[in-house]
Design goal:
By secondary structure, the chain is an all-beta fold. It has two helices and 39 strands.
């Protein structure tokens, strides 16, 4: 098969070593605009500590639940192709949220596609599905039917498992909730202890409305209330997640937070928003102005995040999909397409502007990473400080960085660096903006909507910027000021792009790095 490469363009003769194999052709571009054809497995982009399916398409995480010593990750999956379609629930389990055992498809497409939803442990066997002690797993999902002529019908269904999630039986009485709607989806179900009943949070996407239901047995549901529209209404509402979070440094203080997938911080792109308030078992009350939009992530690749049910500790953990519908069908990894974010622990922080969401990588990552290297403080000026050959070289890194501004007008770091190819994370003190720029990241989808620079307001604290940066072959996640602002992006660097450097412009700054490297 004839292939067009970028060997001459970038001067990377070693690239030929991996540009072999066979498979479906995919077209992408380098950051400088040259079209390439990817005809081979791209294992150099397969993440080390982020979840990716072995093959084919994935999008939303589904049914996150802890049961009998295992973290379950179900996910939207096309078992047959790398394109969206034939949606079913893929399945993987983990003991530590980092190393995943891939299992067969859990809930397969039948006369309907299996859209997003959640899973619970019915310990008391309120549903009557359990056949042994300890209860059973019950999945609650949207069945999507194509009626032809552009018409669809979405209803809520349940399925149950008595073998630790390895197989599911679809309930004979499905659907358990049917509003005769074309778009009515993504049930988030959890046990509400104060009212001793199951709560379902489910979306009407087009009118930007959330519906709340209650049930004693997961089969019969009674409507309680509605919420919305609110926040930024420019995109449809999907994938709700209602969770009670602790407030940092305020023992015993908790608030309810409602996260949903909707319009993001960039016009024309979807993302995630959240609202802070109270939930009394019937109604969610937003404590902020209805038109105030708070965003979960300021990168373009964090969507459809939901939380774990029945965790064995008091943590609140979510996982999101690291892609964006603006270019999701064009990303070049093969034979899989798309990965999940690092699992994140959630809390709230009281700020002068009100309560704000805090996100941090799960503590299991710090426990699993290799021994680190704490480097001496580095003075940065107009000459980039490259750390090639040292502890900061590689494509799988966990960086803990403390920057201090002197008089620099800009400072930051470059990842996946080789020549004029890199991903840049920088800070502009004059505007208080932290940015993540992947416009020269290496290979990019053909969509012009991919190569953008993302940014967020991040005030310095005593002239200091604290970053934790996770780099995992094809993902970059930036956690700023101890998790108060996050930017997440997919990237597709060439295999040789592995350098890291720090920089300052128009003045000086300092950085103290603590580096954990898995190498390549």
């Amino acid at each position: 098969m004839k292939m067009k490469t970028i060997l001459g363009l970038l001067g990377l003769p070693a690239l030929a070593a991996w540009w072999v194999g066979c498979g479906p052709s995919e077209t992408s571009q380098t950051a400088v605009g040259e079209t390439v054809v990817l005809d081979t497995a791209t294992e150099h982009w397969r993440p080390r500590f982020h979840f990716a399916p072995p093959r084919h398409w994935t999008n939303d995480p589904n049914g996150l639940v802890y049961f009998q010593g295992e973290y379950h990750l179900f996910y939207q999956h096309n078992p047959f192709d790398k394109k969206w379609g034939h949606m079913s629930w893929g399945h993987a389990v983990s003991k530590n949220l980092l190393d995943w055992e891939h299992l067969p498809v859990a809930i397969a497409e039948d006369t309907a596609m299996i859209f997003s939803g959640s899973a619970v442990v019915d310990t008391a066997n309120l549903s009557g599905f359990a056949t042994g002690p300890g209860g059973c797993l019950v999945a609650i999902y949207t069945a999507h039917r194509d009626l032809g002529g552009g018409k669809t019908h979405q209803t809520q269904h349940i399925a149950y498992s008595n073998d630790r999630g390895r197989t599911f039986t679809k309930y004979a009485g499905n659907p358990v909730l049917d509003l005769q709607q074309a778009d009515f989806r993504d049930p988030d179900v959890f046990w509400h202890a104060p009212t001793r009943r199951w709560i379902m949070v489910v979306q009407l996407p087009q009118p930007r409305k959330t519906l709340f239901y209650a049930s004693n047995d997961l089969k019969k549901w009674t409507k309680l209330s509605e919420f919305g529209p609110a926040g930024n209404p420019e995109a449809i509402w999907e994938c709700p997640e209602l969770v009670q979070l602790p407030v940092e440094n305020e023992p015993g203080q908790q608030k309810w937070v409602y996260l949903l997938s909707a319009a993001g911080p960039y016009p024309g792109y979807q993302g995630m928003q959240y609202f802070v308030g109270e939930f009394d078992g019937t109604t969610f009350r937003n404590e902020y102005p209805a038109d105030q939009a708070l965003y979960v992530d300021y990168g373009r690749d964090f969507y459809a995040a939901i939380g774990y049910n029945h965790l064995p500790d008091d943590r609140r953990i979510i996982i999101g999909w690291m892609a964006n519908w603006a270019y999701a069908g064009q990303t070049p990894a093969h034979p899989w397409r798309h990965v999940m974010s690092i699992p994140r622990e959630l809390a709230l922080r009281r700020t002068p502007a009100g309560y704000r969401l805090v996100q941090r990588p799960v503590r299991e990552l710090a426990q699993a990473r290799p021994p680190g290297a704490e480097l001496d403080p580095i003075e940065l000026d107009d000459e980039p400080h490259s750390l090639d050959g040292g502890a900061v070289t590689g494509r799988v890194l966990d960086l803990e960085l403390a920057f201090e501004q002197d008089d620099a007008q800009q400072f930051g770091l470059r990842l996946f660096e080789q020549g004029d190819q890199y991903v840049e994370i920088g800070y502009l003190p004059a505007t208080g903006q932290l940015y993540l720029d992947r416009s020269r990241a290496g290979v990019a989808p053909t969509s012009e909507r991919f190569s953008q620079r993302d940014s967020a307001a991040v005030p310095l604290t005593d002239r200091q910027l604290k970053l934790r940066v996770l780099i995992d072959r094809s993902t970059v996640e930036v956690f700023a000021q101890d998790g108060q602002v996050v930017l997440s992006n997919a990237v597709f660097p060439l295999p040789q792009q592995r350098g890291v450097s720090f920089f300052a412009k128009d003045g000086t700054a300092w950085v103290k790095p603590h580096v954990y490297s898995w190498g390549d």
